[in-house]
């Protein structure tokens, strides 16, 4: 196991993650898994590209996850169930490190997303569900921590101006709620990584 994963787990266990609080706006509950893995002993982050046929966030890069179903006892169960459904993997071996702050999607879909950071076991074989996943990419975390591959742009939604994060990897552009979740992970990983 990589020392950064241990440091993330220790840090996330010592600080409570924040909930979204937007007075007057009702958001549906959702959860995602932010999958980390090792490739050549280096931490990577896994993303899925959503098919262009989907109703929400079509064609965007995302973390596996979705709406919390009534039968999901906790948001973590939602994240793990959705990961199993989307990637076709056995999630019993995923080492959950903790949760990041909730992120709202107030622009259209109206969710509050609870991200859980988890380490996918070595050697796991993906069997993506083609109805939910067009393809999978694994991006080195060190690349995402390089500021030259990150930019922000102002956007306006429901009278509020907010910053949208964009990360690039080769020809792929990761943005939106996934970009905001990724920014939180990158900031945390940067603070915990040795110089």
UniProtKB/TrEMBL annotation:
SUPFAM superfamilies: Nudix. Its cofactor is Mn(2+); Mg(2+). Keywords: Hydrolase, Magnesium, Manganese, Metal-binding. Gene3D superfamilies: Nucleoside Triphosphate Pyrophosphohydrolase (3.90.79.10). Transmembrane segments: none annotated. It comes from the Bacteria. It holds the Pfam family NUDIX. One of its GO terms (molecular function) is metal ion binding. Residues 27-162 form the Nudix hydrolase domain. PANTHER family: MITOCHONDRIAL COENZYME A DIPHOSPHATASE NUDT8, NUDIX HYDROLASE. This is Coenzyme A pyrophosphatase. It comes from Melittangium boletus DSM 14713. The lineage of its organism: Bacteria, Pseudomonadati, Myxococcota, Myxococcia, Myxococcales.
